[in-house]
Amino acid sequence: MYDPESGREFELVEGTRIQDVEIFAGYGKRIKLREETAIGLAKQHGGNPEKWQHVKGIGVVDFDGEERAAEVHWFQEESVGRVNFMLKRWRE
Question: What CA–CA distance (Å, rounded) separates 77 from 83?
Fold first, then answer.
């Protein structure tokens, strides 16, 4: 997953289950995804542009061999799954 602050890539620790998952924009929510975002996701990954969602949760990230909790964001669509993970902020 990409960390825009540092420009580095990180991985979730093997076996990590993302906790406190919240869909906050897109399909089924009052806040809609921008049309160009939804269309771009559908072009890149497939799925229905109207069903893409922006989601966040807390995961455990491998930070140079140490486990650190972080808020992570991603997009998902039921027929595609989770894509474009991004590290939003460290929790500690």
Answer: 9
Residue 40 tokens read as 């771009």
Distance CA(77)–CA(49), nearest Å, equals 9
Rg (CA), the chain: 14
Q: Which two tokens stand for residue 66?
A: 């140490």
DSSP state string for the chain: -EETTTTEE-EEPTT---EEEEEEEETTSSSPPPHHHHHHHHHHH-S-GGG-EEEEEEEEEEETTEEEEEEEEEEEETTTEEEEEEEEEE--
Per-residue pLDDT of the chain (92 residues), as tens digits, is: 999 999 999 999 999 999 999 999 999 999 999 999 999 999 999 999 999 999 999 999 999 999 999 999 999 999 999 999 999 999 97
Q: What are phi and psi of 19, to 5 degrees?
A: -105, 165
